[in-house]
Design goal:
There is one protein chain. α5 packs antiparallel against α8 and α8 packs antiparallel against α9. The chain has one domain: Outer membrane efflux proteins (OEP). It contains ten helices and four strands, in the order ααααββααααββαα.
Amino acid sequence: MKKNFAFAPLMLALVLAGCATPPPIDTTKLPATPAAFKEGDGRWTVAAPADAQPRGEWWKAFGDPVLDDLVARAEARNDRIQIAAARLTQARALLRSADAERLPQVGIGAGAVRGTDPSTGTKPSTLISAGANFSYEVDLFGRLARASDAASLDAQARDALLQSARLLAQADVAQTYFALRALDIENAILRDTVAAYRDTLRLTERRYQAGDVAELDVARVRTEAASTESDALAVQRQRSVLEHALAVLVGEPASNFALTGGEWKLLPIVPAGVPGSVLARRPDVAAAQRQLQAAQARVGVAQAAWFPSVQLTAAGGYASPELSDLFKWSARAWSVGALLSLPVFDGGRRNAAVQGASAEMDAALASYREQVLVAFKDVEDELSSLRLLAEQAQAQGTAVDSASRATALSASRYRNGMISQLELLDAQRSELRNRRQAAQVRAAQYQATVGLIRALGGG
């Protein structure tokens, strides 16, 4: 009977430790992972799922050295990446602080006290002491361990957010760069068209002076030339805004940044993989998962505050009323102790802490669910965009070919006097519009490709 009684405190501790276990994550509230993407087809391959893998230099698939240089500059100077890196350093420091709470605490100290001792009378006396102190909290119910786990998960979440910031900066640089290149192509088309309209205007003015055409024909050509020149200026204005935005992304002053014209390079086909690989590779989803697990661990920390804490202490050193005798062997002093504290009444503070931690876990679960749904949505958006843009590019290519042929035929008929100049201008205007639309569709394909890479988590 005495043997069973001796094990009673241990059994009680184990029971209480079980009560401090945080609630499990309710997986029924998480969205089911689909077996395949709705927009996928047989071309898509399966990527190895691992959010810890490097994102890879995915932008090099476009074969553009200018883009490679811009991304390298952004990785070195982008402010969002620098902020995320600082947050990761801060989280790792907090983790080291939480781990330190689980280790013994040792310190040294010295002091002098002067006062009266009732046992010796009222005559004042001085006591000088010097020694070392030791303290250690026995983590019976896992409070310190769960706090350390939560800090570790926070650091992992910050690491994933740093990866997400890098991926976001890389994608923003690529998309801004391709949008700028698209405006360069539009501007070239408009510039050539303005030059052609000016040549037509000079010819029409000479014919008007010779009495071959009416003033109305001159006005029409002048209107088309001025309108196209206005469009070219608008495109140049948009290009300036994008160039300044690109300067901010690479961490440079807009006043010192300039990007010369270029041309389209490769447009790679991106394998989408399977939906499960998206959840494993996307750093923002990984960060939300770590934050959920950290919130779960903090519920256990709050629950453990209800249970006893045991503090072991020890001190050793010297104490003497005279400084000259302080380090004599006869002046040595020591003490050991154990302190057990158990909360009885705190006005509901601990209960409120448990409720707050549980609410934080519920919020983190909802945030993780939303991040998962957004991840699937992003991939489906870009896959559908690429599919439809490929069909649109084919149709637009046919339109450009037909418009070019119509312009050539109209020019021949106009020279032979078979049609009016208004019909020729209409054909030229149609060709210009279709060429610009083709450039815009091509730019949208580049944007959607970068968007798909970002939605898949890079790589």
